[in-house]
């Protein structure tokens, strides 16, 4: 298989419900349903049969593979504000393991050994509007290593030591950075680094696998234990890696300007946000992110909206296994409207 749509699915019933919405949204991808969904999961995941049925209902094939995200570090988990840990973390190391996996370990996963490309989608993300065949585009553009989503940033304790490590690495390896590493628009003294929202990303695997710079950089980052000590995020590390590699990057907005992408897509709240402090001031970061940072607002809609009515009967067992059989469960999608754009960490 030359390419996969890659998704890491957690063990909760809500993770499965979110993944079903994501699978339905893949009808927006203009690949003729030829690209299989590669579901990476831990042994505790029990929803694969349900996910396969839902994918088959919209003509999409599913391949599955186990992933080992451990082991947990022997040290206590660092104390960090809740917004830094994602909605699925309840005192464990799950979010840290996810960051570590997508930073570097994903490139050596056996399920991707024969693949040229992958498009990552989080299980709680989805498309609205047509998306071109991004894999064909990479075939036609061998100079492009990566197709990026919108910009993001992490600040202060979440990037402690990372700026110095990056600049020292570039200097010691005589590398010229094509862009600055700091995020713009913050008050003087704010320590913020730029990344990409890589919950949606398209990756040319060999660009990373054959890069001596990335091989050494991933070794240095791993040895620093910064992911587990400070929660260095894979989104920031991905952009820093591409910068150090001097890799060519395209934006989703360049190739699909009218497409809409939502993260998260499923939830009983239309809009959720986290509150945290930046330089002593309270700030709210909205958790809904749609359409390349344009003005979109979330709306509620029943989960059945995401499945063709012709298949509603065949999907009834899916809803039943999830614990709901009608549209009383609500799903967040996005439409053009008043500005509620994301201002930060997702």
Structure, briefly:
This protein has 346 residues and is of the alpha/beta class.
Q: Could you describe the 3D structure shown?
A:
Keywords: Transferase. This is Hexosyltransferase. One of its GO terms (cellular component) is Golgi apparatus. The protein contains 11 helices and 16 strands. It is α/β, with parallel strands linked by helices. It has a 7-stranded mixed beta sheet with strand order 3-2-1-4-9-6-10. It starts with a strand and ends in a 10-residue tail after the last strand. The model is unreliable at about 265-310 and about 320-345 (pLDDT under 50).
Topology diagram in text:
Layout lengths: L2 E7 L3 H13 L10 E6 L6 H10 L4 E5 L27 H10 L13 E5 L4 E3 L5 H7 L3 E5 L2 E5 L6 H11 L19 E5 L3 E5 H5 L2 H13 L1 H5 L3 H12 L2 E4 H4 L4 E4 L9 E6 L2 E6 L2 E2 L5 E7 L13 H7 L7 E7 L10
Parallel strand pairs: 1-2, 1-4, 2-3, 6-10
Antiparallel strand pairs: 4-9, 5-11, 6-9, 7-8, 11-14, 12-13, 15-16
Q: Name the strands of the widest sheet in spatial order.
A: 3-2-1-4-9-6-10
The main pleated sheet reads as: 7 strands, mixed
Helix content: 25-40%
The assigned structural class equals alpha/beta
Number of strands: 16
What portion of the residues fall into strands of 2 or more residues?
15-25%
Give helix and strand order, one letter per element, not per position: EHEHEHEEHEEHEEHHHHEHEEEEEHE
Radius of gyration: 20 Å
Overall 3D shape: globular
- What's the average pLDDT? 78
**First-last Cα distance:** 31 Å
The number of distinct helices, counting runs of at least 4 residues, comes to 11
The unreliable regions are 266-312, 321-346
